[in-house]
UniProtKB/TrEMBL annotation:
InterPro entries reported in the protein's UniProt record: Troponin (IPR001978), Troponin_I (IPR050875), Troponin_sf (IPR038077)
Any single GO CC term annotated in Swiss-Prot or TrEMBL for this entry: troponin complex
Name listed for the protein in its UniProt record: Troponin I1, slow skeletal type
The entry's keywords: Actin-binding, Coiled coil, Muscle protein
Keyword Cell membrane: no
GO biological process: cardiac muscle contraction; skeletal muscle contraction
Molecular-function annotations in GO: actin binding
Organism lineage string: Eukaryota, Metazoa, Chordata, Craniata, Vertebrata
Keyword Coiled coil appears in the UniProt entry: yes
């Protein structure tokens, strides 16, 4: 029996065209999603963080404001560090517990 040469259902140029159209559509969707995320971030920050009013403040009032802001940043950094340290400790504890469990031997 002679083998019949099969023709592809779609030509290579058509396949390439469809592939490029799909990539263009994916890029467009990704860019739109990125813009929406940025707009959502701006909206969220505007809602959660009031604008900083520095007009009309004296030098000493500005310095006090800076000290207050630095203190808040320091507290947040300490909390972030503690959370990261605790999550790291939990991960190590789970690995240690799994290593010494009798089922793993």
């Amino acid at each position: 029996m002679p083998e019949v040469e099969r023709k592809p259902k779609i030509t290579a140029s058509r396949k390439l065209l469809l592939k490029s159209l799909m990539l263009a559509k994916a890029k467009e969707c990704w860019e739109q999603e990125h813009e929406e995320r940025e707009a959502e971030k701006v909206r969220y920050l505007a809602e959660r963080i009031p604008t900083l009013q520095t007009r009309g403040l004296s030098l000493s009032a500005l310095q006090d404001l800076c000290r207050e802001l630095h203190a808040k940043v320091e507290v947040v950094d300490e909390e972030r560090y503690d959370i990261e340290a605790m999550s790291g400790m939990e991960g190590r504890k789970k690995m240690f517990d799994a290593a010494k469990s009798p089922t793993s031997q």
